């Protein structure tokens, strides 16, 4: 694993020395928005109009951030309008690669590159930063629109509605403030919280992250006792941002990241809720345990130096959820 510095690939693991053993996720570099008419969005520059077939999404089935974008692509009827390439689950010294020898890894179906970093360099030959998935690519201008999943799902939520005729809204105006508040805690303590626990290199950093994670799961469990979804009776972006972490919890985070106070299946409401979201039309195909179990255990040498892939818990996703 590594990063680009002035266009040159440097192979290095996350440096937690300056942050007291804490993992600090860096912010993303490409922050433009696709809009219905190509006008500029909340950040970046304009020129990215919603058009069928114009955009390509680079993803990993292992990555929870990329997973959100795949879910929104499915929910919003965008599979015929936005093409995808899926990287190999192993992220080693070359970062994400387009080796297509793992079932479901497609290679770079658009440009035929070997490494994801080449996609970044095609957009900016002097790029400095991490080479992450997801990446939303504009075929027309040869630019990266965005590599920030939180913003890609907002674009997918509305930008293509005129093309797809799908106006389902997962970020409804009256609920936005509350969605933001739930997202903030879920991001910090759950989505990123599992990484903070797993990548901690001091006991203190781990204790802090694991404590916050399980307090947040207890809070979510209580919330879902009286509410079908996080915001009440309507599924929103907040649910789809939580789901990828819950889907990986028992198979990956519980063991590999030492998030083991409880398993997801020990929380009756959260577990039934996760099954309901899994069973939502189009969602199951985005959940690839083969990719995420392989990715985490094989790629994180500092955590699992012998790269043994565990046998894993048996998880019955098809059990009726009984909610609603
Ligand atoms: N804020 C980004 C985070 C993306 C991210 O960190 N992706 C991970 C995979 S789960 C990655 O590609 N990491 C490679 C690296 O850090 O070098 C987003 O939500 O899109």
Automatic annotation (TrEMBL):
Matching Pfam families: GST_C_2, GST_N_2
GST C-terminal domain mapped to chain residues: 172-306
InterPro entries for this protein: Glutathione-S-Trfase_C-like, Glutathione-S-Trfase_C_sf, Glutathione_S-Trfase, Glutathione_S-Trfase_N, GST_Omega-like_C, GST_Omega/GSH, Thioredoxin-like_sf
Listed PANTHER family: GLUTATHIONE S-TRANSFERASE OMEGA-LIKE 1-RELATED, GLUTATHIONYL-HYDROQUINONE REDUCTASE
The name this protein goes by in its record: Glutathione-dependent reductase
Species of the source: Sinisalibacter aestuarii
Lineage, highest ranks first: Bacteria, Pseudomonadati, Pseudomonadota, Alphaproteobacteria, Rhodobacterales
């Amino acid at each position: 694993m590594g990063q680009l510095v002035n266009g040159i690939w440097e192979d290095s693991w996350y440096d937690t020395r300056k942050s007291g053993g804490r993992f600090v996720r860096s912010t993303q570099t490409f922050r433009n928005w696709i809009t219905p008419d190509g006008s500029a969005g909340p950040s970046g520059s304009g020129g990215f109009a919603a058009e069928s077939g114009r955009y390509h999404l680079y993803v990993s089935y292992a990555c929870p951030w990329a997973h959100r974008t795949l879910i929104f692509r499915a929910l919003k009827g965008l599979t015929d309008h936005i093409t995808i390439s899926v990287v190999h689950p192993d992220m080693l010294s070359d970062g994400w690669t387009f080796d297509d020898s793992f079932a479901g890894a497609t290679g770079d179906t658009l440009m035929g590159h070997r490494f994801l970093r080449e996609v970044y360099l095609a957009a900016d030959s002097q790029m400095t930063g991490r080479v992450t998935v997801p990446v939303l690519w504009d075929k027309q201008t040869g630019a990266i629109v965005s590599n920030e999943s939180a913003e890609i799902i907002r674009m997918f939520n509305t930008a293509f509605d005129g093309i797809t005729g799908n106006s389902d809204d997962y970020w409804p105006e009256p609920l936005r403030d509350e969605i933001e508040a739930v997202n903030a805690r879920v991001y910090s303590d759950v989505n990123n919280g599992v990484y903070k626990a797993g990548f901690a290199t001091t006991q203190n950093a781990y204790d802090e992250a694991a404590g916050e994670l399980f307090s947040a799961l207890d809070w979510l469990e209580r919330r879902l006792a009286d509410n079908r979804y996080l915001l009440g009776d309507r599924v929103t972006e907040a649910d789809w941002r939580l789901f990828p972490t819950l889907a990986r919890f028992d198979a990956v985070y519980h063991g590999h990241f030492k998030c083991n106070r409880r398993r997801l299946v020990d929380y009756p409401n959260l577990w039934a809720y996760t099954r309901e979201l899994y069973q939502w039309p189009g969602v199951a195909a985005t959940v690839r345990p083969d990719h995420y179990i392989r990715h985490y255990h094989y790629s994180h040498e500092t955590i699992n130096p012998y790269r043994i892939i565990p046998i894993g818990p048996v998880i019955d996703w098809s059990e009726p959820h009984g909610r609603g």
